[in-house]
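Progress note, sequence design subtask.
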């Protein structure tokens, strides 16, 4: 299944989908809603695309003005597709693929990000890992979490849910890290 980048420098370009049934590709309607909401925050942002799948969220962020994107993905098929999509768009300088489980990478990382996309597998939402990702947000940073529509949102000290939207079987929560 191919994915269309929606807007920005690479808007309209087709990238390869995840290629594996172990991921749940986010629909274009949901991606469009996310990026319409946060578009103004992308200019020169450092972005983390956790549980990256095809890399569509991070690549859309680059298309819309993000400075750098780090993709974290453990699935080898998905890793190959992300590398292919990065090469297809010619964004090797601005994109880094980390081939590791998000949980182990997040525990060891000391990097900070302006925006984090977390789209864990719906059959294994890895809430402790998502909670660990909050630590990697810069003050006033934003996390966009995709989760099954019937689940509860996470609560964590130092981050506030600023919006929560439902799209059928999927829901998106927007978290803001409190300023320093």
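Output:
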């Amino acid at each position: 299944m191919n994915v269309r980048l929606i807007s920005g420098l690479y808007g309209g370009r087709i990238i390869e989908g995840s290629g594996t049934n172990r991921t749940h590709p986010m629909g274009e309607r949901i991606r469009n809603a996310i990026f319409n909401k946060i578009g103004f925050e992308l200019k020169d942002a450092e972005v983390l695309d956790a549980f990256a799948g095809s890399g569509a969220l991070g690549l859309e962020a680059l298309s819309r003005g993000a400075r750098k994107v780090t993709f974290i993905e453990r699935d080898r098929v998905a890793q190959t597709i992300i590398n292919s999509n990065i090469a297809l768009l010619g964004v090797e300088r601005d994109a880094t693929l980390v081939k590791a489980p998000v949980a182990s990478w997040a525990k060891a990382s000391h990097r900070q990000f302006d925006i984090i996309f977390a789209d864990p597998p719906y059959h294994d939402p890895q809430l402790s890992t998502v909670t660990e990702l909050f630590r990697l947000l810069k003050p006033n940073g934003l996390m966009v979490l995709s989760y099954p529509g019937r689940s509860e949102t996470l609560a964590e000290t130092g981050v506030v849910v600023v919006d929560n939207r439902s799209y059928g079987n999927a829901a998106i929560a927007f978290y803001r890290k409190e300023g320093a």
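The helical segments are 28-38, 56-63, 76-89, 102-108, 127-134. Work on this subtask will continue into the next period as scheduled.
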